[in-house]
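Quick one, T. Sequence first:
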Amino acid sequence: MLRKDAPGEERRTKLLQILKDSALPVKAAELAKETGVSRQVIVQDIALLRAKEEPIIATPQGYIYSAPDTTPVAGVRHVIYTQHTPAEMEKELNILVDHGVAVLDVGIEHSVYGKIFRPLGLKTRYDVKTFAAEMAQNHANLLSALTGGRHLHTVEAPNEQSIDRACRSLAEAGFLVEP
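Structure tokens:
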């Protein structure tokens, strides 16, 4: 346990370590108890950490440190172009991960802002569910809202066949578009 008068930066470093070490979500109340501050201070600390681009996801079960896994899958990478409504996001991502395809990032090619990319690191349905929960909890718009739903993903899979099967499924769902 930290001293009650522990400086904020020291406390936030401790919070990061707790979250990185935990395989399960950690509730704000648990973090408050561990660091000797109120739940509200934890919520503020998490907001500060997220503002510094720490990959902390808030879920109904607690906070998760979710650094994208950038370890390459021994295989191939492709860039695919898709388009869908916000309500179809989970379906699109689940199609990809269900075929063993990792979704490394999401990007758009905006007429004014240029290319904008954000890492995702999604490999499983759990990853997709966690990402969707974070988007919903934060009332966040998809990056593709800037381009009418059109966006691209860098994807990675063990082989070409996995990506081909995933792309066929995306096309059947009406999500795959030409670059």
